[in-house]
Amino acid sequence: MTRQPSIADLAIGRSTIRRRILVLLLADPDTRLHLRDVQRRAGTTPGTASRELAALVAAGLIEREPQGQHVFFRASRSPFAEMLRPLLAADGLAPKAPTAPRDDTAEPPAGTTKPPTSPALDEPPTDPTAPPPVQDLQVPAVIDPARLAPEHVEIAARFAAAMRDAFGDDLVEVLIDRPGPSAAAQSQPLSFIVVLDEAPPYGEALERTSRQTFGLSIESGVVVSRIFVGRSEWVHREDGFFVRARSEAVPVE
Amino acid sequence: MNAEHPAAYVGRADLSIETARAELESMNLRVAAEHAFEAFRFLAQACLERDGLSDAQHDGVVHEYGHRFGGGGRLYAAYYRWMLDAGDLVRAYELELRGLAGAEGEDSTLADTIDRAQTFRDAVERFLEKPR
């Protein structure tokens, strides 16, 4: 649902990250935070946090305090910052709990192409929540093998299991869009439609299923693609894609 | 895409990233997402060109990159994961899915996607500088 713009929006723009950083720092004028703290609490990447902080410093809303080798940020005492504080409070905004720390954007050391940590990112996924090996899966009876290439049946079963793990009771249905009987066009993505009870915050849904989708793409050699749709939207939308997909997509789960 | 020097694709990616940032600043989120994913594809093409695969078809760039580089070893495996996510984000915008429309935080998702494209871009530049 789109929130109506407020005076704070007009003053600082509608960037979610910018607002979170301002709330973090303006809520308590005595707060001093390191870049890493700001990045973690705002739930964003170091690059975005750094960029937004630079803009806010340039605008005179926050101040930069070098201390030895470290740099801290705090609210400015400027009249504009003082004026903005109650406007942000009037919006009822509070620092949101960040999503899981985004530590996978850390660049590998210069001169290498391998990451310094997180070996799982360069190895086949070994996440314990990953779906079990395909030979242990009961392939759902709803998959009609006549409508899918044999290798797609296996991928579909594993993908459905991964979605079940990711969304639990919120999962309504998983379908393959335009499966086709032939696997000849291997460069074409295998596209899944994930129907959930309610349309999720999309970035969160992508992040929650990112590693499983990636792992399946690597292991199968097929680009696995997915979209997330709320139940009501899946049932009721009457524009081209939905009308076609409802008639052609093959249920997996 | 016609065959080009790999560095030219990196240049195209730079422009795409710059455009994506500008569109994000203007809150044109769909256009920003498209340019961010375009950057990923240009960078994938640069890597394929370095491997002498200049005849990869447009739709096959992501698939071929995943086949050659996606599992890690020569390039960080996460870059392929980010590429897949960026492509799926564009698809969601193309379909105008309601999970996107005005959702709080979608601009941060896009900001992260653009940051990831930048990180990938820098890695590809280093990769291209390595001797074959």
Provide a brief overview of the structure.
The complex is a heterodimer of chains A (253) and B (132). By secondary structure, chain A is an alpha+beta fold.
User: Helical stretch count of chain B?
Assistant: 5
The rounded Rg of chain A comes to 23 Å
Cα end-to-end separation of chain B: 23 Å
**Continuous helix count of chain A:** 10
Query: What overall form of chain B do the CA principal axes indicate?
Result: elongated
Could you give the count of β-strands of chain A? 7
- Portion in helices of chain A: 25-40%
- Strand percentage of chain B, roughly? under 5%
Looking at the chains present, what oligomeric state does this protein adopt?
heterodimer
Which two chains share the most extensive interface?
A-B, 59 and 52 residues
- Any low-confidence stretches of chain B, pLDDT <50, length ≥5? none
Give the helices and strands of chain B as they follow along the chain.
HHHHH
Total strand segments of chain B: 0
Provide a descriptive summary of the structure in words.
The complex is a heterodimer of chains A (about 250) and B (about 130). Chain A has about 250 residues and is of the alpha+beta class. Chain A is built from 10 helices and 7 strands. Helix content of chain A is about 40%, strand content about 15%. A 4-stranded mixed beta sheet of chain A has the order 6-5-4-7. A 3-stranded antiparallel beta sheet of chain A has the order 1-3-2. In chain A, a hairpin with a 2-residue loop joins strand 2 and strand 3. Chain A is elongated. Mean pLDDT of chain A is about 75; it is low at about 95-140. Chain B is about 70% helix and about 0% strand. Chain B is elongated, with a radius of gyration of 14 Å. Chain B has 5 helices and no strands. Chain B is mostly helical and about 130 residues long. The model of chain B has no long low-confidence stretch (mean pLDDT about 90). Classes of the chains: A alpha+beta (about 250), B mainly alpha (about 130). At the A-B interface, helix 7, helix 8 and strand 6 of A face helix 3, helix 4 and helix 5 of B.
